[in-house]
Amino acid sequence: MMRAALCLGLALAIALALHRAPMAQPRDMDALPDDDAFGMLADPGFRVIPLHEAAKIAGQRFRGRLIAARLAPPHQDEHARGVELVHELRLMTKRRNVLLIRLDARTGDFLEVAGAGLTEARRRDGDSE
């Protein structure tokens, strides 16, 4: 009886050890543009403003310290307006609010600015600090 319980316990332990967690589901690919999101970068005529220029554009309009930056595919509404690639920047304000700034990576146009403290972080005309 004791031996049967030991064998059953061992079998249960092995079964639990071999159990695999379900695999992560693939991302919803419909959320991306139809073609490869960064495929246009292979085109030699495709020009992207450099990151330092995107940071300068954002810094001319908002006070804050750049804490993160990346190239990202456009949202569906941005893609529908002809945007092909986005500079996504995060600025930290003096009050430690984080602003998310999305710029068209080809033109530098502002697409979206979000976050707490926008009004306070916004530079006014002639505001140099």
TrEMBL record:
Keywords, in A-Z order: Signal
Keyword Signal attributed: yes
Domain of life from the UniProt record: Bacteria
Annotated signal peptide: 1-24
Name by which UniProt lists this protein: Peptidase propeptide and YPEB domain-containing protein
Keyword Signal in record: yes
